[in-house]
UniProtKB/TrEMBL annotation:
CDD domains: MFS_MMR_MDR_like. Keywords: Antibiotic resistance, Cell membrane, Membrane, Transmembrane, Transmembrane helix, Transport. Its main location: membrane. PANTHER family: BLR6921 PROTEIN, MAJOR FACILITATOR SUPERFAMILY MULTIDRUG TRANSPORTER MFSC. The chain crosses the membrane at residues 12-33, 48-65, 77-95, 107-127, 139-158, 164-186, 198-217, 229-247, 268-291, 303-320, 332-351, 405-427, 447-470. Residues 11-475 form the Major facilitator superfamily (MFS) profile domain. This is MFS transporter. It comes from Streptomyces huasconensis. It holds the Pfam family MFS_1.
Length: 499
């Protein structure tokens, strides 16, 4: 076992700060998009590329970024990712046109794909004591989980009271402080690198396959599921990812060792978390639309309206998940956690025009936050339970990848369901003499609640997968037999919700 680093808690501050920056970036940019589009003359057709350019680069390069962290050193990769992310953010804030903005967003995605796996790998190898690890991951998980909603508040303030450009510039002080802190404080344990030659065919096939998959879902949202390009992307993705799996089974030093994927508990975590992210993306999306469009909340007020969910996540992550994960098997936290989140989501299917915030939306958010915080905490820790140090980066990237793909699926699938239900309601209820504005608002709410019903079902499936696939004991003692397949010392880390 490596010697415990006395500066590990200081290091956690800078690692968590870096992750907060990445999570904030998603929701901040969403709020700033209308103002940026107008200033830079971006067409409605190309507006989605401000989001998509980041998602494609980030999702496509995560596995490569994880492998680079294992090969190059996690601290070096972490600092490089921070410096690059800050430079890309400066470029985005200074953008003078569409091309410059899209290029900056793609660069943010590239450096984010280096930063995220490196941060999580560092956390894994620096905290080896079970109780300390639970506490560290609880703090980190609460920051990561609540960061998206904090981004809504900060983005609203910056856009309303300063300028949309500050939603990019705000990343620079975050990155500078985190990079300086990491450089002087973080000490990476020796002997954890994987110096095997880089699997170039694996890099090419995985990157192209994941980009095609994420773009296919993004395209489905805007152009429909029957669009020829959408179908072509899904076919290409299936072929490329199948070729990737075959390649990884044969090459001597694979980009993603299949042993990382095939262990029962890790497979259950990847699958259940990916599905839960589909549901969560749906919630953020539709609740934001509902509050701003139907209830006329300002961006700042909308951000504050998500505070109960942040509070629930913090309590679920630090007070329930982190305290119990060393005493209770993960499935007994994950299954009930996802079910509690499903009950919270179920409440939101009762939304109507003018629904009470304190009577319906706030308690639903509290349940969602508590359930997700409780479930995500042990799940994220279990994601690399028993993984060899040399595979820690790529295993972390695999969890981020499953969440990134889950987010793309959630946005496309639930948006399509909502749009279809809204159109059907309008056809059925628009009639002469009726208040058209009211009917349109009711139609939007009908679309949101129809999609939220699907999210409820998805969370129930997540709970069932967690309860049936995951059979390891609690994470404060020895690993279960399934966890020792890699023959390594018990190492754990937490992934974050990729956006």
């Amino acid at each position: 076992m490596t010697e415990t680093d006395p500066r590990r808690w200081k290091a956690l501050v800078f690692i968590a700060l870096a992750q907060l920056m990445v999570v904030l970036d998603a929701t901040i940019v969403n709020i700033a998009l209308p103002s940026a589009q107008q200033d830079l003359g971006i067409s409605d057709g190309n507006r989605q590329w401000v989001i998509t350019a980041y998602a494609l680069a980030f999702g496509g390069l995560l596995l490569f970024g994880g492998r680079i962290a294992d090969l190059w050193g996690r601290k070096r990769t972490f600092v490089t990712g921070l410096v690059g992310f800050a430079a890309a953010s400066a470029l985005g804030g200074a953008a003078t046109g569409e091309g410059m903005m899209l290029g900056a967003r793609a660069l943010q995605g590239v450096f984010g794909a280096l930063l995220a796996p490196a941060a999580l790998s560092l956390l894994a190898v620096m905290f080896t004591d079970a109780k300390e690890r639970a506490k560290a991951f609880g703090i980190y998980g609460a920051i990561a989980g609540g960061g998206g909603a904090v981004g809504l508040i900060l983005g609203g303030f910056l856009t309303e009271y300063l300028n949309w450009r500050w939603t990019f510039f705000v990343n620079i002080p975050f990155a500078v402080v985190a990079a300086l802190g990491a450089y002087f404080v973080i000490r990476e344990p020796a002997g954890g690198r994987n110096r095997s030659p880089l699997d170039i065919p694996g890099v090419v096939l995985s990157t192209l396959g994941l980009v095609a998959l994420v773009y296919g879902f993004t395209r489905a949202e805007s152009d429909g599921w029957s669009d020829s390009v959408t179908i072509g992307m899904f076919v290409a993705s299936a072929v490329l990812l199948a070729a990737f799996v075959l390649t990884e089974a044969k090459v001597k030093s694979p980009l993603l060792p299949l042993r990382v994927l095939t262990e029962r508990n890790r497979g259950g975590v990847y699958l259940s978390l990916g599905l839960a992210v589909i549901a969560m993306f749906g919630l953020f999306l539709f609740l934001t639309y509902y509050l701003q469009i139907v209830e006329n909340y300002s961006p700042v007020k909308t951000g504050f309206a998500f505070l109960p969910m942040i509070a629930g996540m913090i309590v679920g992550s630090t007070q329930i998940g982190a305290r119990l994960m060393t005493r209770v098997p993960p499935r007994l936290l994950m299954g009930p956690g996802f079910l509690l989140a499903a009950v919270g989501m179920l409440l939101l299917t009762q939304l109507e025009v003018g629904s009470s915030y304190t009577g319906l939306i706030m308690p639903a958010q509290l349940m969602l936050g508590l359930g997700m915080g409780t479930a995500f905490m042990p799940a994220m820790s279990l994601a690399t339970h028993g993984v060899e140090a040399r595979d820690a980066g790529v295993a972390s990237a695999m969890v981020n990848t499953s969440q990134q793909v889950g987010g793309a699926i959630g946005t496309a699938l639930l948006n399509t369901i909502a749009a279809s239900a809204t159109s059907a309601y309008l056809v059925e209820h628009v009639a002469a003499g009726r208040d058209l504005k009211l009917v349109q608002a009711q139609a939007m709410v009908e679309g949101y609640t129809s999609a939220i019903w699907w999210a409820v079902g998805i969370l129930v499936v997540s709970a069932v997968i967690a309860a049936t696939f995951i059979d390891t004991g609690h994470q404060g003692g020895p690993a279960a037999s399934g966890d020792s397949v890699d023959g390594a010392e018990d190492e754990v880390k937490i992934p974050v919700l990729a956006h």
